[in-house]
């Protein structure tokens, strides 16, 4: 069976470095906020091109901590999108604030800036665009609107860390960049992990306090916080992965190019589109088809996994029913939720496997 995400092939490539990193942590025994945490933060900040990186326990916690540092509170509104993983809106609601959804762009599946301004009002305290499936939202346009209203922008880059927007790295594009190192991400650890990025000294300081229960120094807590620290083992594991990350992005692009070449003929499949001002890290390779369920079944019968991500958009999730949204409110997000299917994607996906996947797809949809 073709793996949906091939972590085993990656581990085989860097196993000696991974083993050495783990052994180093086991030897010094500083399992929480050990020296590897500070080291990987410096490397990640340098990679992104910002002053500060603060690692945290998960991508979800990174969003929560970002909003806590901005002072988001009950009654506030935070604008985001309905086509994403629930963490994006969940963290807003957990703070007692209201998620306000804006529809997405039909080509990139990311927040549509032309629809953003209509959602802003006096209660709006932040904008949280998401970089879905590997490329950023149109951050330049979003930032321009945010600047007009004096609003901070939190980039949810859980799926697009390493991508660029007008030549600038994701997570350095706004007030705060946030990402996840969940194992399936393009840059992932071997458990939960995440990070926050900013060049604002005051925000970075707040991130560090909040991730240790709001503690500024031992036994002194000037603000509320959470238990949001990254384990030292996960930080250690990330470093050898970061060393090969750019090469893996290149390999992912080659896989995406091969998919595009094999699937672009005819009109039964719509291949993913990357905006001309973006590069993608291809967290997923997601096609659109009117026979998604039939294709998913046929792929499965041929030993090929596929996933319908976000098949129920957030505004239609029962947990958000009190927001008052209905089917039809965000037609683009709903259409995408109904016809997208993500195919196996990995830097190590063999050309023969891509050929087989494409053959099955053509056989079903022609």
Question: How would you describe this structure to a colleague?
Answer:
There is one protein chain. This protein has about 375 residues and is α/β, with parallel strands linked by helices. The chain has two domains: about 5-100 and about 110-245, Aspartate Aminotransferase, domain 2 (3-Layer(aba) Sandwich); about 245-365, Aspartate Aminotransferase, domain 1. The chain contains eleven helices and eleven strands. It has helices spanning about 5-30, 35-50, 60-70, 85-95, 140-150, 200-210, 230-245, 245-265, 290-300, 330-340, 350-365; strands spanning about 50-55, 75-80, 100, 125, 155, 165, 170, 175-180, 195-200, 285-290, 340-345. Helix 8 runs parallel beside helix 11. The longest helix is centred in the N-terminal third of the chain and has 22 residues, at about 5-30.
